[in-house]
Amino acid sequence: MPVDTLNWLVPLAGAVLGAVFGAITQRTGLCSMGGIADAVGFGDTQRLRTWGVATAVAVLGTQALAATRGVDLGASLYTGARWTWLSHALGGAAFGVGMTLASGCGSRNAVRLGAGSLKALVVLLVLGLSAWMTLKGALAPLRVHGLDTVAVELGRAQDLPTLFAGAAGPPSVAWRLGLAVAFGGGLLALCLGTRIHRPPTGHLVGAAIVGLVIAGGWWVTGDLGFVAEHPDTLAPAWVATQSHRPESFTFVAPVVGGLELALLWTDASLHPTFGVATLVGTVAGAAVMARVDGSFHWQGFADAGDLARHLAGGALMGFGGVCALGCTTGQGLAGLSTLALGAFETVAAIAVGCVVTLKAIERGAFGH
C-alpha cells in the first residue's frame, strides 16, 4: 500500500480504535487507579479484576499477532535490550502518585474530558507540558544524563519470550504462545476463578474488547502500517507512528504530539499520528457514550486545594510517564502485552506509588 495512503489510514484506524476504547471505558468505569483504590480502601477487587481481564486478553491477542502476523514487537520501545530499571522504578512511582492526586491516569482523564470534566482538561494540559519538558526541555537532561544512565545491558530484547529463548536466537512460535497462554491464562484464572467480587458480565465483555483494541493497535501500526522499504529511505519503516516504531495505546507521548500539532500546525514536518488519533478518538468515544447514557455533565474544581492537587498530579504523570516509557495504559496494557521486563517493573512501581498516596490521603496529608 502506498505510504501516502498509510499516512492517513493508520491515524484513521487509530481514531476508530480510540473511539471504541473511550466508549467502553466510559460505560464500564474501567480504571486502574479506581481498581487499586477500591481494593485498598474497601477490599473490593471487582474493578481490579476487570483491568486484569483486559490485560490478559491484550497479552493473548498481541502475542498471537507476533506469532502469526509477524508483528515485530522487538522493534517497539518496550522491548529494547537496555533495561533502564531506575527510570522505570522512579518514573512508575511518580506516575502512581500523580494519577492518584489527579483522580485518574491519562486515559481516565481523557475519558472524563469526554464526559464534561474541565478538571480533566487541565490535568491533560499540564501532563502534556510536563511530558514535553521531560522529552525535550528543561527536565530532559535529568532523564537522559541521570536516570537513563543507570541500566542493565541484557544483550537481547527484554521481552520474556526472547529472554527465555536465550542464546538460541529469536523465540519460537511455541515459546511465544506458551508464555502468552501461561501468563494470560493464569491472569484470567486469577480474575475469574472465584465468585467473590467477580465483575458483571457486561464489564467483563467490555474489558475483553479493550484488550482486543490494544492488540488491534499493534496490528494497525505493526502490520498494516509497516513498509519493508520506505521510498524515501529504502529502509523498513512503521508509518504514522510517533515513535517511528510499532506501538499501541498510550496516553503520555500522544498528548505531547497533540500539543505540538496544535501549536505548530504549519510545520510541514509534523503530521497526525496513530497516538494522537487514538487520544482524539478516546475523548470523542467517551463523549458520545456519556451523551447516550445521560452521564455527561460539566465539572470544575471544588476549590484551590483541589486545583493544586490536580496540577501536581498532572505534572508528576507527565514526568513519570516519559521516564517509565508509558502510563497505566501504555505500560499496564500495551507494555505488558509485549511481556517486557520493564513493563512488569513499571506497573509494580505505579501500584506502589498509588497505594502510598492513597494511604497519605487517608491521613489527611493532602487536605480535603
Q: What is this entry, summarized?
A:
It contains 15 helices and 4 strands.
Chain-wise SSE layout:
Elements: H1 3-28, H2 32-42, H3 46-68, E1 82-83, H4 85-101, H5 106-114, H6 118-136, H7 140-145, E2 152-153, H8 160-165, H9 173-192, H10 201-224, E3 226-227, E4 237-238, H11 253-263, H12 274-293, H13 304-323, H14 330-337, H15 341-362
Antiparallel strand pairs: 1-2, 3-4
Helix pairs in contact: 1-5, 1-10, 1-12, 2-3, 2-15, 3-9, 3-10, 3-14, 4-13, 4-15, 5-6, 5-12, 6-11, 6-13, 11-12, 14-15
Average pLDDT confidence is 93
- Runs in which pLDDT lies below 50 for 5 or more consecutive residues are none
Figure out the total of helices: 15
Percent range for β-strand residues: under 5%
Number of strands: 4
The percent of residues in helical segments reads 55-70%
Strand order of the largest sheet: 1-2
